[in-house]
Amino acid sequence: MEVGFVLFDGTLFVRAVRGPVSRWFQAASNHRGGRIRVDSLSRAVVFAADGEDPAGIDEAYRAKFASRFPRHHCPCASRDAPEHH
């Protein structure tokens, strides 16, 4: 898994699981935009690193991804994981 997505307070947030060393993160940082496709839905998006996480965003990641990382810390559920939305 390269990225983790959560919908939080009406906004889609994406974090690179491996942080800034991730190829996805580096490409997103360089291009500043792209497309997200889910089934037949496709949307243009802007990638922007946020300086402050909204209250509760880490918990939203933990709730979604904890079962995928049962023995380890969920890597994208941390303020240390860079975030794009």
SSE layout:
Blueprint: E1 3-8, E2 11-16, H1 23-31, E3 33-38, E4 41-46, H2 57-65, E5 83-84
Antiparallel strand pairs: 1-2, 2-5, 3-4
Textual characterization of the structure:
The protein is globular. The protein has helices spanning 23-31, 57-65; strands spanning 3-8, 11-16, 33-38, 41-46, 83-84. It is 21% helix and 31% strand. By secondary structure, it is of the alpha+beta class. It has a three-stranded antiparallel β-sheet with strand order 1-2-5, covered by helices on one side. It has a two-stranded antiparallel ribbon with strand order 3-4. The protein has one domain. The mean pLDDT is 75. It is built from two helices and five strands.
Task: Give descriptors for this structure.
globular; alpha+beta; 2 helices; 85 residues; three-stranded antiparallel sheet
Mean pLDDT: 75
Using the alpha-carbon principal axes, give the shape.
Answer: globular
| Major pleated sheet | 3 strands, antiparallel
Query: How many structural domains in the coordinates?
Result: 1
How would you concisely characterize the structure shown here?
By secondary structure, the protein is of the alpha+beta class. The protein has helices at residues 23-31, 57-65; strands at residues 3-8, 11-16, 33-38, 41-46, 83-84.
